[in-house]
Amino acid sequence: MSHSHTHNHTDLKGKKLLITIVLNIVITVAQVIGGLVSGSLSLLSDALHNFSDVLSLIVSYVAAKLSQRKASIDRTFGYKRAEILAAFVNASTLVIVAIILIKEAVARFLNPQQIDSNLVIWLSLIAIIANGLSVLLLKKDSTNNINIRSAYLHLLTDMLASVAVLVGGLLMKFYQLFWVDSLLTLLIALYLVYVGYDLLKTSTKILMLFTPDHINVKDVVRAVNKLPKVNKLHHVHIWSLSDHELHLEAHLDLQEDISTTEFNTLLLEIEALLHDEFDINHVTIQPEYNKEDPKEVIVQD
């Protein structure tokens, strides 16, 4: 059995997450008070979304810290999957919040209420500025880390929601269109469902050890089978441990009864091939020669 891997970690800035947590706590408190005083459901819905942001950012911060802990005897992978779990939790909260907002928006749409539009306008402006700053802080790290991306999406959608609330406040102030408040709440909620579902699907696939979407197992097998002395790569498992670790585990049926030294040379070729063509950076191969076992690519244990 041979095993090799390479890693490429992103240095996540915990300080950025802490800043965004503080900003969102301030926004949430201000919007809850403002929503209750003004009677605006869209402002309260934005506050609820911001509260989910606070929870998601705290989860993301803890997960980012846990993921940096070293592996141990009883935790051989360490806490690397903590960030994937955090993304799953964050996506779930987005969808749950959206369902609550849809229910409330429909009820309010059937019974519109007068709203203090001035308070809505000023608080939405403050939320846009604070969320915009938070989005800028996390934008760079969001491109290569699913945990930070989940937090970034929370903040981005909330900034867009605040823009919608601002537009609604202006329409209520100048045209007395109070039903717009319920309509905006419904649109915000539907957008949350759209964003949350995509992230939920991605994180679920990783947690379930599904083959990543960009990997074609048959292509991987064909590429390895073309190498000298290889008869057939079979019993293949390919999965993502985290955003930065793509694993392959397989049995390798050989054409010849080669020495360990020869196999090491072959293994280096396989590792280079899998890394360069498929971005697989963690390879575990079980060499076999004339062994009687199933030779299918996928074997159900």
Tell me, what's the shape? elongated
Structural class: alpha+beta
Reported for the largest beta sheet, the result is: 4 strands, mixed
* Run of helices and strands: EHHHHHHHEEHE
The total of helices stands at 8
Strand percent estimate: 5-15%
Number of strands: 4
Low-confidence stretches: 2-12
Mean pLDDT: 85
N/C terminus separation? 19 Å
Q: How large, in whole angstroms, is the Cα Rg?
A: 25 Å
Q: Output the strand order for the largest sheet.
A: 1-4-3-2
Keywords:
301 residues, 4 strands, alpha+beta, elongated, disordered N terminus
Task: Describe the 3D structure.
The chain is built from eight helices and four strands. It has 301 residues and is an alpha+beta fold. The chain has a four-stranded mixed beta sheet with strand order 1-4-3-2, with helices on one face. Helix 1 (14-38) runs antiparallel to helix 2 (41-67). The longest helix is centred in the middle third of the chain and has 30 residues, at 146-175. The chain is elongated. It starts with a strand and ends in a 13-residue tail after the last strand.
